[in-house]
């Protein structure tokens, strides 16, 4: 009897289990991921991002991505680091490309090599999609840590109507610093002691100011930093001294540039309003200028003093460290989609940034767009003389060591040589701990 009761109980339990297995499992919801994104330039980038993510979610029902606006590039770095430290990292971030080295040093990035390999491709094949000039900020110690998303070079913007009024030919823009100085003098207008139109405007605020100093230093034959090692910057050098002196001369000697340190949005506003006849600004502002300028304009390469050269700007897509596998995989799906030829081309047309994926320029929509808007070709053509954006240990503090001093110069409170000596000293102090653990740590 005992055996019979146990047998019946066992059969009943087995039946219950079989019944449970026969009931369809509740479908799991989509993998939810966050994308941190900054808005570093003028325009409607936040709205465009909403459009992009909406399309991704509609075409990828297994993933639900949420775009989270995080402010400037610097703000985005701060918020990403805080989230990582709190154990709640976002799944993907549009991160300023020159922050990647610093983040890798601090173990805050996911090495993307395994994700690339899991797709059955090689690093060389994967990186081969993108313009070679962009790879310097994406690859660290031979591994991929970032995927180029929206990138830029600085451009010279010219109010073509005002140039013609001054007897200048906008189809033959200035090629050298000397020519640019001459153009700026002819384009500056005064009523007595009051300037009613500045010849040139160059932005100087945190982040933009460092990029502009790198631009001018490179066109003066110099290097901003050691591209092979994150512990050295070259602030107190003849090439940077010449660059800052020329910028200072535009303000206080030639008086064709407004005094003071002017943020990027104020520079573009000045140009759009006609208060400045030329400006140096990112190609990321090109769509904003195209949509808002009530005059004919031209864009051109940054003029040189010694050589044609510009730094890459803009951002890469990264996967922060500390993500669970499911979210990491979903983030990688999003990143590949956003950097595909079609989406890369769409983003370029919407924002003004050039498309990092070379195949974007072969898509039918992009070919048609460039035929109608040839000004969008200039930044891409300038890639032939482009090099990586500066990247060091403690990138932001080291950059601000220089920017603080440049702002003092443009505000008339310091001379260029004095400022650069101080900037070098401060940067060397900031870099000291890293150098102590690397280049100065001897066997």
UniProtKB/TrEMBL annotation:
<dbReference type="Pfam" id="PF13416">
    <property type="entry name" value="SBP_bac_8"/>
</dbReference>
<comment type="similarity">
    <text>Belongs to the bacterial solute-binding protein 1 family.</text>
</comment>
<feature type="signal peptide">
    <location>
        <begin position="1"/>
        <end position="27"/>
    </location>
</feature>
<dbReference type="InterPro" id="IPR006311">
    <property type="entry name" value="TAT_signal"/>
</dbReference>
<dbReference type="InterPro" id="IPR006059">
    <property type="entry name" value="SBP"/>
</dbReference>
<dbReference type="InterPro" id="IPR050490">
    <property type="entry name" value="Bact_solute-bd_prot1"/>
</dbReference>
<protein>
    <submittedName>
        <fullName>Sn-glycerol 3-phosphate transport system substrate-binding protein</fullName>
    </submittedName>
</protein>
<keyword id="KW-0574">Periplasm</keyword>
<keyword id="KW-0732">Signal</keyword>
């Amino acid at each position: 009897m005992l055996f019979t009761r146990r047998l019946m109980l066992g059969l009943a339990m087995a039946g219950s289990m079989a019944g449970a297995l026969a009931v369809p499992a509740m479908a799991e919801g989509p993998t939810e991921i966050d994308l941190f994104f900054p808005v570093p330039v003028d325009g409607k980038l936040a709205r465009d991002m909403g459009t992009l993510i909406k399309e991704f979610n509609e075409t990828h029902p297994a993933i639900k991505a949420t775009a989270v606006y995080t402010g400037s590039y610097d703000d985005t770095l701060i918020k990403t680091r805080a989230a990582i430290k709190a154990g709640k990292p976002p799944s993907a971030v549009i991160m300023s490309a020159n922050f990647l080295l610093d983040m890798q040093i601090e173990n805050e990035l996911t090495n993307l090599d395994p994700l690339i390999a899991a797709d059955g491709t090689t690093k060389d094949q994967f990186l081969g999609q993108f313009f070679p000039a962009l790879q310097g900020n994406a690859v660290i110690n031979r591994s991929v840590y970032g995927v180029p998303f929206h990138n830029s070079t600085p451009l010279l913007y010219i109010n073509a109507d005002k140039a013609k009024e001054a007897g200048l030919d906008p189809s033959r823009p200035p090629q050298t610093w000397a020519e640019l100085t001459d153009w700026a003098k002819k384009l500056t207008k005064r009523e007595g002691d009051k300037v009613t139109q500045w010849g040139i405007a160059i932005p100087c605020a945190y982040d933009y100011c460092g990029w502009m100093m790198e631009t001018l230093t490179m066109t003066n034959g110099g290097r901003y930093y050691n591209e092979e090692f994150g512990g050295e910057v070259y602030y107190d050098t003849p090439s940077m001294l010449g660059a800052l002196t020329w910028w200072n001369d535009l303000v206080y000697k030639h008086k064709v540039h407004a005094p003071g340190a002017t943020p990027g949005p104020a520079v573009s506003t000045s140009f759009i309003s006609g208060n400045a006849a030329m400006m140096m600004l990112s190609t990321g502002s090109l769509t904003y200028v195209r949509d808002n300028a009530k005059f004919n304009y031209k864009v051109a390469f940054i003029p040189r003093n010694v050589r044609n050269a510009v730094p890459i700007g803009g951002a890469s897509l990264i996967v922060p460290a500390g993500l669970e596998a499911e979210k990491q995989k979903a983030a990688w799906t999003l990143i590949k989609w956003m950097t595909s030829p079609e989406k890369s081309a769409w983003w370029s047309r919407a924002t003004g940034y050039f498309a990092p994926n070379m195949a974007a320029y072969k898509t039918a929509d992009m070919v048609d767009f460039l035929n109608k808007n040839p000004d969008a070709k200039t930044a891409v053509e300038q890639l032939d003389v482009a090099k990586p954006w500066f990247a060091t240990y403690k990138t932001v503090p080291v950059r601000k060591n220089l920017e603080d001093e440049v702002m003092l110069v443009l505000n008339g409170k310091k001379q260029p040589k004095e400022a650069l000596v101080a900037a070098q000293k401060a940067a060397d102090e900031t870099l000291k701990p890293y150098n102590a653990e690397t280049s100065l740590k001897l066997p």
